[in-house]
Amino acid sequence: MNRLFVSNLLKINKSITSFNYKPIVRTSLFISSPLKNKTTIFNVCNNNNTTIVKNYCSSSDSNNDNVIKSKNKYSFDELLDGGRCGVEDPRIMDAFYKIMELEFHEDFDEAISIGERMVDRFPNSFDAHVTLARLLLDHKNDAASAYDLAKHAFDQGLEPFHHACWTDALELMGRSLQTMNRRHEAIVVYQELLDYCEREYETSGIGQLPLLVRRDIYKTMALDWEKNRDSLLSSQRVLKSIESSDARQWEPMDAMFLGVCEFHLGNKEESLKYLNKGLDNYIKDDYDSQTDQELAIYNTAQKLRDELQSK
After folding, report:
1. Does residue 128 form part of some domain?
2. Which of 107, 132, 157, 265 is 20 to 30 A from 148, comparing alpha carbons?
């Protein structure tokens, strides 16, 4: 299952920090739903936890299943084809769960159809806009429309159900920009995403973001290392967060990226330490499966280690 939530960028005027971050107040709609605390559909799916998704979609004795099946108590058309309204109707959660169920069964066209009806029915719903944006990005590769939807949710000052939805939306905006080959704008969005996590999540900070998202972020920023010191510092923050919070999933390639990053920052001792960790644990059999960028980092790491050891 692909990741969740989204956006298409018209353009970033001024700066991404012009987004109007309002204090988030959890609504009764969110608290009463099975998606409590930091868990969003994005986090469930992006962590690739098939068991959780199956429980949401098919468990016969869970509250989650009752939410999905509650659509049988009324016509789904009654929910999605009525006049426009706010987001207080608790049945909106049924639509979110139905979309997740359809994605689980790979019925993407129907999921997108429901997403479009949700946006029309609940025009003040931040999450409806971001959900449709993510569907369009993940299943139609329509990055432009995805970005536009998420940007609209920010520009209109709509409020999500929970803090985590801000991070979902920013990540999808960055990914949409990457898809449109607007890397420098994507980096601006990713930097704001990192800053937001550190402001709002005192204990987990950047570690709040799924591991795959953090890897995408530092690898995108790495393409700008030679020109942008801020990208170096942000990549360092992300890589350090992976090392500290996801030690079991820390990979030799992560260490090599961090070693090269530290070298560019002038931290030669730290650079050599991480270059050694990465190169000494690198499995040669993985060489053929690496991306062009990863192969370039591998070759650079070898040259830098030789240079540092010769001094």
Report:
1. yes
2. 107
Residue 201 domain-assigned? no
For residues 30 and 118, state if they share a domain.
Answer: yes
Query: Looking at the structure, do residues 177 and 263 belong to the same domain, yes or no?
Result: no
* pLDDT for res 258: 97
Q: State the residue range of the domain holding 289.
A: 210-311
pLDDT of residue 96: 85
Q: How many domains does the chain have?
A: 2
Mean pLDDT of the chain: 75
Please tell me whether residues 167 and 229 are part of one structural domain. no
Cα separation, 155 vs 25, whole angstroms: 18
Residue 3 near residue 44 (C-beta atoms within 8 A) = no
102-137 pLDDT, tens digit per residue, is 999 999 999 999 999 989 888 888 888 999 999 999
Domain boundary among 153, 188, 223: 188
pLDDT of residue 11: 28
| Statement: residue 40 has pLDDT above 60 | no
Q: Are residues 224 and 82 in the same domain?
A: no
Specify whether the backbone of 301 is left (phi greater than 0), alpha (psi in -120 to 50) or beta: alpha
